[in-house]
Design a protein that fits this description.
CATH superfamily: P-loop containing nucleotide triphosphate hydrolases
Helix content: 25-40%
Largest sheet: 7 strands, mixed
CATH topology: Rossmann fold
Structural class: alpha/beta
Radius of gyration: 16 Å
Bound molecules: guanosine-5'-diphosphate
Number of strands: 7
């Protein structure tokens, strides 16, 4: 799939105010500063669709973009940013959780993980929560340019072994790199395949 059209639709903090759930939707989430905006821009061939920010924790909204007039890409707020207050954090958590649990057209969540780091508790807990709630997800390892192949392999193995402590099967994962567009084809082909296999019946 090639993305020929990508446009911003709406931002909000309430899943009930999101666009009518009539087309498939894919959400991107990860820790603040994981490289989510850069990845979204890379995937959509758009240098400024998502705001690349030098200020972690800034994006606090559910952002909808319509892609090729046929599916929604959703940029979700980053989690785990230490500098926001606890009250603020739990408020975010609530609206993100409501969105993830209640959005009927959400086909898959892409969980972005910084490949430079050893398994992080917050990422593991988030994936555990998705799994327990039956929310399908794929892992995208980001920033794969800043480390050697052996460290990359070690960190990915670390995640795999942590996940296998709770789950029998591992989620699909792709290695991505904003600058070289590594992983772009894989992510778009994955989305195209799911869209074809799961057409939405909007007449019922
Ligand atoms: P977000 O907060 O998750 O949306 O992250 P951003 O896309 O705003 O990126 C955070 C920082 O990481 C920025 O300084 C980016 O330039 C940098 N960054 C993003 N993607 C990559 C990547 O693939 N490799 C490297 N080395 N840096 C990246």
């Amino acid at each position: 799939m090639e993305i020929t059209k990508a446009a911003f639709v709406i931002s909000n903090t309430d899943h009930k105010k999101c666009p009518a759930p009539t087309i498939p939707e894919y959400a991107f989430i990860g820790r603040s500063n994981v490289g989510k905006s850069s990845l979204i821009n890379m995937i959509t061939n758009h240098s400024k669709l998502a705001k690349v920010s030098g200020q972690p924790g800034k994006t606090q909204l559910i952002n909808h973009f319509i892609i090729n007039n046929s599916w929604y890409l959703v940029d979700l707020p980053g989690y785990g940013y230490a500098k926001v207050s606890k009250t603020m954090r739990s408020k975010w958590q609530k609206f993100i959780q409501d969105y993830l649990l209640l959005r009927t057209n959400l086909y898959c969540v892409f969980v972005l993980i910084d490949s430079r780091l050893e398994p992080q508790k917050i990422d593991l807990e988030f994936m555990q929560w998705l799994g327990e709630n039956g929310i399908p997800f794929v892992i995208l390892f980001t920033k794969a340019d800043k480390l050697s192949k052996s460290v990359l392999a070690k960190n990915i193995e670390g995640y795999k072994s942590e996940l296998l402590k709770s789950w029998e099967t591992l989620p699909i994962y792709y290695i991505t790199l904003a600058e070289t567009k590594m992983g772009k084809t894989e992510v778009l082909e994955f989305i195209a395949k799911i869209n074809i296999e799961n057409p939405m019946n909007n007449n019922s």
